[in-house]
Request: fold
Amino acid sequence: MIKTIRRIPVAHYSNLKARTGYSIRLDDKEIALFKVSNGRVYALENRSPHPKGGVLSEGLVSGEYVYCPVYDWKISLVDGKVQEPDNGQVRTYKIEIEKDVVFIVL
Amino acid sequence: MKKLVMIGNGMAGVRTIEEILKLEPEQFEITIFGEEPYPNYNRIKLSNILQGDVHFDDIIINPLEWYKDNNIQLYTGEAVVKIDTKARKVLSDQGREVQYDELIIATGSKAIILPIPGANKQGVTGFRDIKDCELMIKLAKQYKKAAVIGGGLLGLEAARGLLNLGMKVDVVHLMPHLMERQLDRVSASMLKEELEAQGMNFLMEKETVEILGDERVIGLRFKDGSQIEADLVVMALGIRPNTEVAKNSGVYVNRGIVVNDYMETNVPHVYAVGECAEHREIVYGLVAPLYEQAKVLANHICGRETEPYKGSVTGTQLKVAGVDLFSAGEIHEDTTTKSIMVHNEYEGIYKKVLIRNNRIVGIVLYGDTKDSTRLFRMLTKQEDISGMTSVSILQSECSGAINDGDDVASMPDDELICGCNGVTKGVIVESIKTKGLTTLDQVSQCTNAGRSCGRCKPLVASILSHTLGNQFNEKAASKTSICGCTTLSREEVIEEIKTKGLTSVKEVMNVLEWNNEEGCTKCRPAINYYLGMIYMDHGMDDRDSRLVNEKMHANVQKDGTYSVVPRMYGGVTTAKDLKKIAEVAEKYHVPLVKLTGGQRIGLFGVKKEDLPSIWKDLDMPSGYAYGKTLRTVKTCVGSQFCRYGTQDSMALGIELEKKFERLDTPHKVKMGVSACPRNCSEAGIKDIGFVGIDGGWEIYVGGNGGVDLRPADLLCTVKTKEEVMEITGAYLQYYRETANYLERTSKWLERIGLKHVQEVLADKEMRQALNERLDKTLKKYVDPWNEAIQSKEIQDKYYMTHIIKVGE
Reply:
């Protein structure tokens, strides 16, 4: 199977505000883009792994974690892992930043 | 050192090892084989894992360090396949050979799997260990329909867990009643009704004869020919002693591994304990008797004199899907028994005590099990009850008069507190006193009380509190930090903010050395609230420290859409506003338009990116239906139109709502205004309620119509509208200044006392000062919807979904 790696520009780095989540729709995928206080940018699937779901982009950001706004699960922005006592994992996407442009690598 | 080997790493076995280590920490070199890849965990709690209450780590009883600290060689994920009883060694499935001087078989039991066609299909499981739980959790994510075979305790727990995981659940039971080994007909049907209300579907008197499907299960077929669909089948028919290795190695096995009163098998130096053992023809499955066996075996192996194990009379204390149950001894009446029964259908309580020859021989309690320890003691000690009245036997019928503290004080020392671990009140009190214990955890560690099913913990806590007296309260009080990020309490945080002049959430967390730099969802909204309360006229709200609804100024719904509820003061609207709402609903294809409980109109299912334009089109202020603030002021029609109304309730309601809207409060605040005591606006269950009487208003406070249903208390009666506004302002401000964040007025009032609040508000100067601070605070608010419409920045940051077409 041929797999193409696509790199999609989604935002200007300088426009992103820290501790904020942005929702981005790429075709059928909805992605939450977060910039955290230390300046790093992360992209996750914009959906909590809680069985009843819910978006992540509106969650409270603390360090390199986001809290699911509906069920308060604590989720690592780095690897998408749900922190104890809950468990699960959110799909993460690779980010590349070049000259102020933020790319999501699919 | 003697070599002690144990096959099995479960609760009864490891408890035996714990008992041995207590007696003879140096006598044995210990090796344990466990088939599962985990340390000893609390199997009783598996249903909690399935139900999502706890995580696996929370149910580990002995962590791996415990094995290490006690020099125990543990082989997990490794089963013993053969015992060479002549050469005294065991052989594992990984080819490992270990010599023993003494061998304990503690292999527990296995789930019974029906020997019917299809039982080996994918999607069919037992409910016995972590692996089964994980499979169910996984399948619940992909599939919708589950069938549980077995309407006993295990089956019902599995079914409850699957409901929590979002599946539709059919429970298939062979017998006409649920849990027929513990419950009689009445209590079983009460349980069935309760569980049906929770969403379970029951198929009674159905015998499963085939599991349908190709590779994976698609359904069940019953003996009567009927069928159901199922994507997951859980067999919860009970357990069977796991005796294979014993049988293959020449140890005598009947139903279980047969042992004598010292837990010895027929082979010298080989013992069996727990669910795999059969003692006097009984195989026990509950934890209490197994721990008794463990104690006897430990003493015996260590060469101590010990009372032999003579079997146990078991009482079953259970909690099934939120319902407390207890049953012991005989369940069904016969011609020689007489019964005392209480059946309170209204409260869902049922109690039955069976009596033969003036002695209690059976107990069934449903819904209220407070009497269980006392009745069970009377049963086991065969007390003569001929002098007692039926009321005093079922004491807690009149339990209003008895409080917990007295209960604990009057309890005899030999009263069993923790049935699982056989811990009495005397033992707990003794260890609190001699070892200086101050917390529940310490008591559990030292005495084992509460370490298994955990149902006795409240009782242990009251014994702790009773034994320590005042000491306990102080200690408990000093431990309420606002969240796990700090050890500081609310009072300390507020004090520090004031004395150090801290002005932002970030600064508070920094200066007060939060152990989690950017806080969590508990502390950040709380700090933000406290800052806003302390600095009255400061407009430095940290929007990103608010949780989603307050941050977005709309309620997030479970599918990620939002609801919009515009302000409709006092529930009074106009044709013009109604038209606007109707037009917006049409223009934005709003899926649901509904009257809310607070007398206004909600638009539900709105897309995030549509929020600002909807607000613009509505051109109405936010109703704050999402906030920790004044929600609604519900009013009745009142004297303007109603023939009963003695006061103008609509006018007062509108004035109250206009004055106090947008004010940040520790939790939401709802008001109601009725023009007469008929109270059509339900002012008696509002945070603040006003009831018009001839010549004035009654002001009620602390009502709650939600989770903590509570009727309001009469705060005072006043004559004029001005007085109403003054008292309400002062009351609200006092609540704002003294309540914990997220504490509703009902809880706050109970904590702080109605009398105290009345005294504060009776003081004129105090009232004025409170109102001044409130008015100053109220000035800083602007309508958040209008603000969002005006600000491109807010729109971009909070309400945009950036749509990007790939491939362009």
